[in-house]
Design goal:
Elements: H1 17-31, H2 52-65, H3 102-115
Length: 118
């Protein structure tokens, strides 16, 4: 995404989210000086009843939803720890590419996640 980075992470016991973000920003800044970081960030901690799969699918679909890339393009910013970690990847087209009908579903999912109806 050109102006933000959606991350889905699982914290371990050693570092707080603030420390993880600070270390990540430092590493990214060392690799490129083209970044201007905003002072704070938005976080959402998943509750036990929330589907991490649904959030992962939303993160995957975000650049397609924003029309930054087409459904026949691969998003170079998708870096899952394992392609098999997410069930929706089994239904994705090779590449991975989203199914075209997923574009119709992503707006509804975005609204549900934002309003807490997920």
């Amino acid at each position: 995404m050109p102006d933000h980075v959606p991350l889905l992470l699982r914290l371990g016991a050693r570092l707080t989210l603030d420390r993880v973000i600070a270390k990540w920003k430092a590493q990214v800044s060392r690799s490129s000086s083209n970044f201007a970081w905003q002072a704070n960030y938005f976080e959402h901690r998943l509750r036990p009843e929330e589907s991490v799969e649904r959030y992962a699918w939303y993160v995957f679909m975000n650049p397609y939803r924003a029309r930054l890339i087409g459904v026949d393009d691969c998003w170079p910013g998708w870096w899952p720890t394992s392609q098999s970690a997410w069930n929706f990847m089994d239904r994705a087209r090779p590449g991975p590419h989203p199914q075209p009908e997923w574009l119709e579903q992503v707006e509804e999912t975005a609204r549900a996640l934002i309003t807490g109806e997920a």
